[in-house]
Amino acid sequence: MMETDSLDRRIVAALQIDARVPYGLLAQALGEVERTVARRVQRLVDADALRFTAFVDELRTGLGQTVSLRVEVDPGSADHVAEALALRADTRWVAVVTGDADVSCELLADGRAALHQVTSHELPSITGIRSTRSYPVLRHIKPTTAWHAEYLTPEEAEAVTAGAPAVPYPGAPVEMQPSDHRLIELLVENARYSWVELAERLGVVPATARRWTERLLGSGAVALRAEIEPELLGYGVEAELWLETVPSAIEPVAEALALHPAVRYCGVVAGTQAVNVLAVLPAMDDLFAFQVEVLGRLPGLVRCEATLVTRAHKRGFVAKR
Q: Quick one: which of 77, 184, 272, 279 has the most CB atoms within 10 Å?
């Protein structure tokens, strides 16, 4: 894994706020030289450490049903199973984890029939899988695009945010236009395509490509992200937490955790452990403090199962090499 310094991390933190921020504005916000910023970003991209992609809220757009999977595998086959899952076009997140399950996966199915086919026939056919448990995602309380590393001053973050679209999240269902599907594919492929590049691929003029993109981003149906391994940002511990609460506490617990700076993702699934959280922290002592001082003070929390991510094979539809 390549090394990053404080400037790399500040640049990435700013790009996590606005993945399309122009390098000139980014350099100005950080008090750096534009050429230096552009060179640092390109270095990370060339090393395949940084990717620009997009998160699509399928629950609001009606593009499918997301399911969280906890997969138990045969001994010694965790990476093999994770790689097989990561190769699927319908998986957004795949990681090898500790705990009762060996692999954690988030999969997007195109409706109930497709979900049945995947869970009942396709997944069991993967060599090494012993069992799967499926939990339909009911709501994304905090998508990973709403999180950024804590390396910027409030003034720097505000300077970058000034150019980013205001996103209503969570919000009402979004009506998709026929042109949106191809545009989303392109933004997932590279969220920093220029307006000219997007226009060429869409067969429209740059002004139209920009208007379509800004409409999607402004609706909250799509959010852009700078994808990088948390370890490169100084977060040595990544934990996936499954929380069981009394039913009346599901929403307040999820919303409270979504505000915590260590929480990259928070969602609600259909299941006993209804609140699903992905948190990143510098060290194991910080995870201990998070469990005791944060989780331990949540009203209505019944129990928590914490697992460690030992290797991520796929993030945001981007497979890791």
A: 279
